[in-house]
Amino acid sequence: MLVVYVSKAVLPILRQHGSGHIFQISSVGGRRGVPGLWAYQSAKWVLGGFSTVLAREVAPLGINVIVVEPGGMKTDSAGSSMKISQVSKPYESTVGYGRYASEEFRKGTIHIKQGCKHYYWVVE
């Protein structure tokens, strides 16, 4: 919800100027159905949907909404928070890292949306 509150706070200023940009940082995870990560990916899906609709609503006012959706990056920032502590027996074959990612996905992608246009880059 914070994204909604911040967007609502800046929109009057951008409307007054007649132009501007709102940048949203999301994740390609919102576009993938990775088993076991439903809460994270659902939140990212909502951010992408909100931003897409907002972009169409404010484009006639000269305001651009841009969503940056980076893919997986090789960092230590997630650390143990991204470890699955214990997978429930019935889901052992369907949940967990390494079971879902294509080579392209493992390299990481960035997807930027601006209005109805779509741009893709592969980040290595």
Automatic annotation (TrEMBL):
Segments crossing the lipid bilayer: none
Entry keyword annotation includes Oxidoreductase: yes
Organism: Aspergillus sergii
Family matches, as SUPFAM superfamilies: NAD(P)-binding Rossmann-fold domains
The family this protein is said to belong to: Belongs to the short-chain dehydrogenases/reductases (SDR) family.
Protein name: NAD(P)-binding protein
Gene Ontology terms, MF aspect: oxidoreductase activity
Superkingdom of origin: Eukaryota
Key words, A-Z: Oxidoreductase
